[in-house]
Design brief:
Low-confidence stretches: 10-17
Number of helices: 2
Helix content: 25-40%
Radius of gyration: 21 Å
Structural class: alpha+beta
Order of helices and strands: EEHEEEEEEEEEEH
Mean pLDDT: 82
Distance between the termini: 18 Å
């Protein structure tokens, strides 16, 4: 049974779980391919869940922010099929708005919010404030005087007139730190799941 493979490109960190790669597919019964694809998809779902848990132990993403059914930022964009025995898990590549990590009420105009990015570490941002964005979301912003800089600044995007939006790490950046740690467990589970299905078939 093949190990899950890990690859990356300029925008995403991708984990593909591949099985039965060494077999001659022309000689593999369709039922076996079907069971293999089921085993891979079960593994991909488990791998995503375990990765999300490990990520939230590092970074304080809100509950279901990573794996919510409708808008989870850690997704499985491609599931395995009998014709393609691989599945992909992909984290969103865009930096995460720092407003995501605000603790307490999230309302337009709120000043000096408390932010928790690293799990268990909260920080009051005295000069920051929440603002409405054109896309309907909230952003966390700070206004700097000309030439002013913030010590230990996070990623910042200039809006206008010294107004900056603040961002934390992207989902795929954090996924990158945990994916290989949980991949061995995923490979073992994939082998066990496929073996279980094969024995049931036989």
């Amino acid at each position: 049974m093949a190990q899950p493979t890990v690859s990356s490109d300029a925008q995403h960190y991708v984990v593909a779980v591949e099985g039965l790669a060494a077999l001659d597919f022309d000689e593999v019964p369709e039922r076996v391919k079907k069971f293999a694809s089921r085993a891979i998809n079960t593994t991909a779902r488990r791998y995503r869940t375990k990765s999300a848990k490990a990520m939230r132990e590092q970074i304080a993403f809100p509950a279901r922010y990573l794996t919510g059914a409708a808008d989870g930022r850690l997704r499985i964009p491609r599931f395995a099929s009998p014709e393609d025995l691989s599945a992909t898990i992909r984290g969103r590549g865009r930096p995460t708005s720092l407003a995501t990590f605000v603790r307490g009420p999230k309302v337009h105009g709120r000043k000096a919010p408390t932010v928790e990015v690293a799990a268990g570490r909260r920080e009051k941002m005295n000069r920051a404030f929440l603002m409405n964005l054109r896309n309907g979301n909230l952003g966390l912003a700070v206004r700097l005087a000309p030439g002013e800089k913030i010590e230990n600044k996070r990623r910042m995007v200039l809006m206008n007139n010294g107004l900056y939006l603040l961002y934390g790490p992207s989902v795929d950046q954090v996924f990158n730190t945990v994916a290989e740690d949980v991949s061995e467990d995923a490979a073992d589970f994939l082998e066990q799941e496929f073996t279980r299905m094969s024995e049931a078939l036989l």
